[in-house]
Amino acid sequence: MIGVLCEPREIPAVREFFELFKTPWAMAEPGVAYDAVVASGDTSDPDGLDTGLLVHFGDHLMAGDAALGIAGGERVWPAVATIDGVTVPLHLGACELVGGGSTRGRLAQGDAAVVTQTERDDMRVIRCGYDLFGEVASLLTHGQPAEHAAIATLDRHIALLRNWLLESGLEIVELYPTPPGAELLATLTHDIDFLGIRRHTRDRTLLGFLYRASIGSLRDVLQGRRSVGETLRNWRAVASLPLVYAGVLEDFWLPFRRYVEADAPARSTFFVVPFRERPGQGPDGRVEPARGVPYAASEIAGELRELADQGHEIAVHGIDAWRDAHLGRAEMAVIQEATGGSETGVRMHWLYFDDDSFSALEKAGFSYDATFGYNETIGFRAGTSQVFAPLGTERLLALPLHVQDTALLYPGRMHLRPADALAACERLIGSVAEHGGVATISWHERSLSPERLWNRVYAGVRGQLRARRADVRTAREVVAWFRARRAISLEGASLDTGTLAGAPSTDGDPAALRVRIHRDGGHTDHAVAAADVRAAICQAETVRS
User: Fold this and answer.
1) What is the largest CA-CA distance in the chain?
2) In the prediction, which pLDDT does 543 show?
3) Cystine design at 433: which of 180, 183, 343, 544 (Cβ 3.0–4.6 Å)?
4) Rounded to an integer, what is the distance from CA 517 to the centroid of its chain?
């Protein structure tokens, strides 16, 4: 079992870290032997520990450093380190470690040591010159800057600690963050900002469409950003507008059927705006009229109920819920009335968010929030591909947003060519598969329609998920699976590996958990029901005796 020594203020971040690295652990107690001890700050006296491995984090020089041969060092902020060959951004900075045994990690700034290893009597000490749990709290509250978006920083912290434990010859049992039979989870989500081009007459949306579908399409084909066929399709759409407005031809901006067909056999999650022409208030206090949408969920209640009956999810594309719980409850009520649902998630329109948003959304009664991502790029804002509990909340879970079509392809953002966009998505999906978790994809309502026609990239992303054997579920189903995994507490407990390995297989059960047992340089996976995991839990007091 892992024992943890930390400051009381760090306990929420410690607990969330071990919800993500789901392995037995406990707050360290005096006189108790542990397989390994993870210590933070000035909390550890190596002479008083009964363990074979101490991993000690701290972004400043500490009282025990002199005994490890660490003479001093400057503090660097912010920092990027290469640790055991892995790049890890350190957003809160780091302390250079001068001396202190062999070097396992160096700072990009100046090449100074930031992780050292020392053998002391019968104990191996890995000294890390950064604040792990402070980094965890920062990532899950504020997120990391876009310049590090491609790096699953928090998942890398978990992988490093796991590897250090395994190097010491320990057996590790963990509830892996992916169900049995899949390399990763995935969810296909769609933000419904526009609902039919007929709703737009002589406004900036229609004028923008006409320009981008005509002159813009010609420019794009010359730059290699779209095919000749796509350009011709856009021109035909422009020519067909009179018949579309007359009702003779189908409105090509109606999204539901297109996505139901494109995503089949998987079910989609649609984030729907509750109120017509309500722009809400921005983080800077201003009101942007362009943020208002020309439809309300109540106007399409029949379609939404039909989609829900088919197994698709209808959630809230929030306007003001990010800043006001009362307004959030009103937005949620509209969607629940339209669909007859009760458990409701939210993603904010334009990804509006601030440090108090998780609290406001929980008070409003949302089950999960799917906002935590980037507008300008794709990647891991929270540094993880796992669903997590924002610090300070009790029931709300956060489903991180990883890939947004407009970030990939829109001018002024990444603006990638299709092949480059697919390569970027392949790298991101590969990272999710490496660490376990969920890839959350967002493709907007008109991105399969003229003038965008981002069909090829979307088909390519779905193909990448199939190639990785992704288990594709609605956002609500993904969150429910993580909630079931989180409901099993491994704090102060141990897992009987023999019982787990002998549990009856539950392959094919969407609620099954994956137990991964690391030993002898490899690992074995077992598909286990949650009830069987609970049966294999032994309380720490029993194990110690």
Assistant:
1) 85
2) 39
3) 183
4) 24
Contact by Cβ (8 Å): 186, 472: yes
| CA pair distance 226, 268, nearest whole angstrom | 26
The pLDDT of residue 544:
39
Identify the burial level of 243 via C-beta atoms within 10 angstroms of its C-beta, where 0-12 means exposed, 13-18 middle and 19 or more buried. Answer: exposed
Low-confidence residues in the chain, pLDDT < 50: 541-545
Query: Quick one: which of 376, 360, 318 has its CA closest to 191?
Result: 318
Decide yes or no: CATH 3.40.50.880 for domain 2-176. yes
Contact in structure between 136 and 16 (CB atoms under 8 Å) = yes
Q: Where are the domains of the chain?
A: 2-176, 185-196+253-480, 211-250, 498-544
Give the position of tokens 């609500």.
Answer: 476
With tokens 């660097």, the residue in question is 76
Span 404-425, pLDDT tens digits: 999 999 999 999 999 999 999 9
Say if CB 267 and CB 247 are below 8 A apart: no
Eight-state DSSP code of residue 389 = P
Sign (positive/negative) of CA torsion 57, 62, 63, 65?
Answer: positive
pLDDT tens-digit readout, 363-385: 999 999 999 999 999 999 999 99
Q: What is the mean pLDDT of the chain?
A: 94
Length reported for the chain: 545
Whether 2-176 shares its CATH topology with 185-196+253-480 is answered no
Alpha helices in 340-404 (DSSP H): 357-364
Distance (Å, rounded) from C-alpha 369 to C-alpha 277? 23
Kind of pairing between the strands at 269-272 and 313-318: parallel
CATH topology classification for 185-196+253-480: TIM Barrel (3.20.20)
DSSP class of 22? -
Which of 205, 236, 182, 134 lies closest to 465 in space, CA to CA? 182
Non-local (6+) Cβ contacts of 531 within 8 A are none
Positive/negative CA dihedral, 244, 247, 248, 249: positive
Helix axes 418-435 and 455-467, enclosed angle (nearest 10):
30
Q: d(Cα 524, Cα 519) in Å, to the nearest integer? A: 8
